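Hey everyone, long-time lurker, first post.

I ran two proteins through the pipeline my lab uses and got sequence/structure pairs for each. Pasting them in order. The first:
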Amino acid sequence: MEAAREAGAGRVGFAASSSAYGDNPVPWIETMPPMPKSPYAATKLAGEGLLRAWANSYGLDTASLRYFNIFGPRQNANSAYAAVIAAFAKAMIAGKRPVIYGDGEQSRDFTFVANAVHANLLAARCEKPIRGEVLNVGCAGAVSVNQLAKSMAAAMGRPDLCPAHEPERTGDIKHSFADLKRTTQVLGYKPIVGFEPGLQQTIKWYQSVLSSASPALSPSGLRL
């Protein structure tokens, strides 16, 4: 933030996270009190505070975009912290059952990456000051993890790969669902790619790269 101020930057955008809402009832509205349940969520919330402080103290315009479960092609499927869609795709392509932590009835506002890019560009180009406001970036829809696993298995031609359930992970939230009224009002944001079309694009990409027979794979398993 200080480097941006010294460089005379017009605006700083921050990749914030919907995890800041914690166990608030859905839909999540930016005016709700934050309730972070994990160190990750707490650090994201701290980042929002810094952006708001610099905006109020130094006149550096800032925006914190709270992303809701971003997914899409090129998302790393090999990390121990891989996002659920990436992890499911990797498992199913390998002929393995996807692992669900908990009962699978937890729901997420899965948001295709094109929507996040769209929101970033709108925030960068916004003519009015944003002044450190927090803005949700999602699709305003909810899909359970069980539904996700079933849809992906069907789309990949592996309906036999029923999920394996393991104990719920500490710090996980039960439901996420974005209210987009403020983001629409401030940025003119509306989702440009829905969940199903985005999921189809994502599955096709993983199928094209997560194969040992593909000559274009890097050692990490992603296309170079």
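...and the second, right after it:
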Amino acid sequence: MKFINFLRSKTILFVFQISILSLFLWYSGYEFSITFDSTVTISQKRIIQFIANYILFDNLPGMFFIYFIWILTSLIPIFVHNNLKKAYSMNLMTFFFPNFFVFAFLYKISRDYFNSTFLHHFLHSFLLGAIIIMVSIGISLILRSIMKVKIKEQIDNLNIILKNIKSKCPNCGIEFNSTPIYCYNCSKIILKTEDNVGIKR
């Protein structure tokens, strides 16, 4: 529970999501190929390449992999917050971060590549972002309905328990929210049977 409360901080949750994505990328060895302009330095290439791996793909296996890691990671805020607005806003913020920087860096540093591929990559990113929103909203609504059913069942169970523990003194008629041994009103001993409550004189 303490860990869940710790994760609810936007900064912590963002770092956690990016860390999970990074672990997937590192373990799989996934790397998106970029044809940089000749003026781009090695250090600039490494930075852009690192960020691009989070969102860009150029083939079907790459698309499935990127979709898989983002949809899986988008589940974290859904279960942490159990709140529709907080879940999809957190997922959008995390998804926006690499998108903004990779397109901004490519526009500034590798303009030729940016101009030739921007629309293609932007449409792919837009579609992935839309799917993340739909997953966030859909699963959040499902969880909400499940929670409503569970809460209703708990209330029904509590009402049954309350009904079962109520008793009535057959001597003076006073009602109790429990089954006492003695009637506190007339001081008679109350005996509980399967059918009714009798009084031991």
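Reply from user beta_strand_b:
Welcome! Quick read of the second one: The beta strands are 167-168, 175-176, 189-192, 197-200. The chain has two domains: 2-160, 166-200.
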